[in-house]
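Need the bound structure for zinc ion, inputs here:
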Amino acid sequence: MTKPCIITVAITGSVPRKEDNPAVPITVAEQIESTQEAFEAGATIAHVHVRKDDQTPTSDPERFARLGEGLRKHCPGMIIQFSTGGRSGKGSERGGMLHLKPDMASLSTGSCNFPTIIYENHPTLVRELADKMMEYGVKPEIEVFDLSMLYQALRLADEGVLTKPLHVQFVFGVKNAMPAIRDVLAFQVSQLNKLMPEATWTAAGIGRHQLEVNRWSLELGGHCRTGLEDNIRIDRDRLAASNAELVKGVAALCGDYGRHPATVSEARQLLGLAATG
Ligand code: ZN
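Answer from helper R.:
Posting the output first, comments after.
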C-alpha cells in the first residue's frame, strides 16, 4: 500500500484575475463548480478566499457561508479551509467567518514582506485568530512564509494556544519571502520532524515553482498544494484550463514517489479531523 498524499487545491486567492486567466473562479457559483471538478480530480482540501463580483478580495462572512454550503453539498467530505490571509481584510475582520466552523483555516504566525506590501501579522492578532479557531473547533493550517514562523508556531503549541499536532504549510517563491530552494524545504522539514514528529506538513510553490515544490514534497514525505491561487500556467506558453487540470498534474506525479492521492477518509484521518464533512 502506498502512502497517501493530501492534495490541497487553492482555487481563487486574492491576486489572480480573470484578465490573467479566465478560469480563475470569482463568483460563488464559479468557485463551487471549479472546486467540484478539482475534487473529482483528486483534491481533498479546498483552500478558499472569497471575492466580490468585481474581483476585489473580501472577508464577507455571508459569502463564505454560501460557498461553504455549496462545497459541502457538491463535494461530500472534502475538507474546507477558509483563508484568514491579509489581503482580504484588516485585523480581526480576517477571522470574521470562523464562527461558520469550516474544518480548517489558514493562520500565519509572523510577518514578512510580500511583493508590494508588508504581510502584517501582529503577535496579538495571531493569538486572537488562534483563540477563535480553538473556540470554534477549526484546525489551523500554519502558513510558514519565513523560517521564524515555524518556531513561533511550535512555541504557541507548547503554550497551548494551538492544538498539537500541527499541520504546517511551507510557502515558497513569494517575492521578498522564501525562495524556492529544495535545501530550505529539507531543513525546515528536518526541524519540524525533530521538534514535532507527529506534525503533518505540505508545501506550496508560487508560479513556475509550483510543480517542482510538489515533487520535493512527495519525495520528502509531505503533502501537496496546487491551484490557480498560486499559479495560473501549465507552462510558459499555456494557461491552465482549470483548477482540476492542475490537480490532475499533481495526482499523476504521486506514483513516481510511491504515493497516491489521499481519499477523503484518509485525509481526514491523517489530519485528525472528524470523519464526515
Ligand atoms: Zn490563500
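Comments: The longest strand covers residues 139-144. Residues 10, 13, 47, 49, 83, 85, 229 surround zinc ion (CB under 6 Å).
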